[in-house]
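SAMPLE LOG
Freezer: B-3
Tube label: C17
Construct: single chain, 256 aa
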Amino acid sequence: MLLSHYSPLSVAEQFGTLETFFPGRIDLGLGQAPGTDQYTANVLRQRVAGEPEFDARLEELIAYLYGTGTATKNGSFSFHAIPGEKTNVPIWLLGSGFYSAQLAGILGLPFSFAGHFAPGNMMEAIKLYRDYFRLSQFLEEPYVLLAVQVVAADEKLEAQRLATSMYQKFLLLTSGQPSPILPPVNNMDDLWNDNGRRAVEEQLFTSIIGDPVGVKQQLHELIEKTDADEILAQTEIFDHKARLRSYEILAQAAVN
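STRUCTURE (predicted):
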């Protein structure tokens, strides 16, 4: 959830409902970025003067899910999230930069970094999170989930071809033309120039692309480099069967 777009009370009630239906199976990931263009963000938010900032919203949400509600400014009464109150839904902070990393550390929350599109900030953000981490009711030690792009196939050349769907998506995004995922192509040279290629590579240089042997090697190198506790795989493959096969290869690489 992009918490800036929703009231903490509504988020607590929605995820409290999910937790009530599916106990122990629900996590709540919170991002503070707009997640879209500014016009759409303004329509979603309908912001008013004096609206609380992200950290205040987060504090209020934690009070709903882990406490007994949150008092109003005049102290006359408290709101309660029903369902939601005392469900203790695990909260993660999501981020592609440094603000959420630092805040997650200060609050002792688990941190998920968006390495699938902002790898340039990855190492500094993870270090910042661990440096600022404080023992809390949520965690005794830092916990990092790292999201990365993964494209796996039985043959290296086929994986590279499948990855062109991902390249096309990010190329279009950099030019302000978002698009549904497109079929792969045999050669990207007809679609990008040097500047476009560099822009895409800057966003995707941590991507894991290859055959089973290559994927296993790249995966373990990334874990060794970052000391991540979990890896979240984002797979931009056009063909559904090929995408399933990619996840099978990744699963085998993870357990072996």
